[in-house]
Design goal:
alpha+beta; oxidoreductase; Acyl-CoA_DH_C; Butyryl-CoA Dehydrogenase, subunit A, domain 2; Butyryl-CoA Dehydrogenase, subunit A, domain 3; single chain; globular; 401 residues; 46% helix; AcylCoA_DH/ox_N_sf; AcylCoA_DH/oxidase_NM_dom_sf; acyl-CoA dehydrogenase activity; Butyryl-Coa Dehydrogenase, subunit A, domain 1
Length: 401
Amino acid sequence: MSEPRRSPDRERLLAAVERARGVAAAHAEASERLRTLAPAVVDALRSSGLFALAAPRALGGAECDPLTQVEVFEAMARADASAGWSLMISALLAAVAGGTLPDAGAREVFEGPFPTFAGLQVPTGLARRVAGGYAVEGRWAFGSGVRHAGWVFTCAVVAPEGGAPPAGPPEMISLAVPRERVVIEDTWDVAGLRGTGSEHYRIEGAFVPEALTCPFPAAPQRRGGAMYSLPFIALVAAGHVGFALGVGRRALDEIAAVAPRRIKAWPQLALGSHAAFHMDLGRAEAKLAAARAYAFDALGRMWDRARAGEALSIDDWSAIRLVQTYVTEVAAEVAGFAYRAGGGGALFAESPLQRCFRDVHAATQHIAATDDAYEFAGRARLGIAELHPMLAPRQAAGGAR
């Protein structure tokens, strides 16, 4: 029998967001000034249990399905984009690490209070084999949440033994390193998502035991249910979609609140009384609702395949990549409309409209939302698309539970 389509923890997790959202919203400006989440926000997310929402139950997680993940990340991003983004990154890295690390490594990482994670899954570091593990060095960008993380889960190329170049693609690994052994650089001075603390970070020759590593990108599933059989890009898709939907919704919330009291200089009438604004707002509502429905359809079909134990097809991959890019673009369009409609008042730092505009446009720069998703979909439609190694299915592994 396949797993239930929706998590039994859905209501509990959404209630947890409700408890944390007020703290995140109240400290949004402080997080911007600090360029990382304010300590009160981190404490609220920890105490809510939300960092554990996507990790395997065997490690203390909620093992939440992708559709519920969309709703949870959407709700937190609606309260504050930086909090929503930071929650997404930590929770999904916990899912990847929890589903794939060897048993000894998983016990070490997940013992005690539930851990927080940061890290970039792009192999810009180098790992050299040594007795019992790897000596790792390198520099990575975009370590969202690294200043409050307990672990950095990142990725490196394995140096060929003997110095000979590999005959095929290089071997790559993911690896978990305690945050204390990572050098954080002060680089996150940016336009959007300022409160995420997405600093560059370095690892300088640290020893990483074999138990804290796994193959990348197609590590074997070692524990958990159907969700952890999904390849990396599919596993994290719900996070990017939920984040974008939440910021788009917050932008429409804000412009709806501003419209009755914003008096346009010409002809001295409230924005909320203009028929043209009514039409534009209606279109924006329809666009965001349609994008949300598309997201639940595409990710629902992906989840149904995983629950049935079926491999993802080229058409599935086309939909997974399309939905992340398209929903992010729609959210950016909606936030752009709301920002422009907000007039001069939207320019000021205290306006959530400018923050929504900046934050969602920062998300459009993420690799998960790039335009080549449309190119891939076009090739898939013509029957000429090929799977990238990042889309490869996970290896089979015994002991998944």
